[in-house]
Amino acid sequence: MKYNQLGASDLKVSEICLGTMTYGNQNTIEDAHQQLDYAINQGINFLDAAEMYPVPPRGETQGKTETYIGEWLQKQQRDQIIVATKISGPGRHFSWLRGGNNKINYDNISQAVNDSLQRLQTDYIDLYQIHWPDRYVPTFGQTIYNPEFERETVPIAEQLTAFADIIQAGKIRYLGLSNETPWGVSEFIRIANQLGLPQVVSIQNAYNLLNRNFDTGLAEVSRYTDVGLLAYSPLAFGFLSGKYIENQAIENTRISLFPGFGQRYLKPNVQEAIIAYVEIAKKHNLTPSQLAISFVKSRWFVKSTIIGATNLQQLQENIDSVNVVLDKQVLEEIDAIHTRYPNPAP
């Protein structure tokens, strides 16, 4: 297992991160602890959660993921595990979370951090991320920025000042962003430099064979700011595993259990692109999942690839991708498909 440093922090994270958003819904606490044990034994030292998990988000299950991790974390050597979690922003209108008032301000940050610490049964969080911006941005498959949707927002300087106090108190170590834009990352960096406030050290955005939007503006920002990508959805909601090519009604998957939850992967050219990528995998004696995860892992700006699984067999296959290195020919074939079907599921 390879380990990469996040920005100017002292966090060295495994190139594979264990995502946990199914814990408390599709996975029981026993499933969760089995996965966590296996991942750690394979060299993974990095776990990613969020206060809103599990998904799909509901008031009656909110926080279960962190609770499951917290029960497991009590049996571990804490300083050997890098725990990341997130604060929800106002864009999702969760009426059951802090009464629906989810602005990224001091009171909400303080409460969210304290609640996560309690559920995780730990004194500190290694990487605390803003799940999506406090301001309006297009999210989850939206591709057009529309100024008409702008809303009142907490200034970035005020957000960073609040996080500075929480960091000073020792409750979180480093700050990260998620679902951010080039302008957003640049502003967080600029304002932090200008005011002497905490720098962000990572950005967690979707990145996979069907969604390579990071390759352009955000990749340039990543290079010049040293804010590396924590890539989520490397398998595009499981679609890049190839299991939905002939049947999208497979039982006990997120698509079958939660209809409409993966709409960004039901767009034109998605299925054609998936079939083409699966053919590349077969040609080179790889599973489609290995091809997809290994591609994400190969990008210079990716610091860790976040994988999730609902059973141990899936987890084993996904982690085994660390042993796969894609050669020049495979990468050229992937780029040829990308040229034919560029970002069909942004």
Which terms would index this structure?
346 residues, alpha/beta, 11 helices
What would your notes on this structure say?
Helix 8 packs across helix 9 (288-298). The two termini are 29 Å apart. The radius of gyration is 19 Å and the shape is globular. The protein has helices at residues 29-41, 64-73, 106-120, 156-168, 182-195, 217-225, 254-257, 270-283, 288-298, 312-319, 328-340, and strands at 3-5, 12-14, 16-19, 46-48, 82-87, 125-130, 172-178, 200-206, 228-232, 302-307. The protein has 11 helices and 10 strands. The protein has 346 residues and is of the alpha/beta class.
Work out the number of β strands. 10
- Mean pLDDT comes to 94
Largest sheet: 8 strands, parallel, barrel
Shape descriptor reads globular
What value does the Rg take, in angstroms?
19 Å
Q: Helix segment count?
A: 11
Q: How many angstroms does the end-to-end distance come to?
A: 29 Å
**How much helical structure, as a percent, in the residues?**
25-40%
- Topology order in helix (H) and strand (E) letters: EEEHEHEHEHEHEHEHHHEHH
Q: Quote the beta fraction.
A: 5-15%
Q: Order of strands side by side in the largest beta sheet?
A: 3-4-5-6-7-8-9-10
Structural class: alpha/beta
- Which spans of ≥5 residues are poorly predicted at pLDDT below 50? none
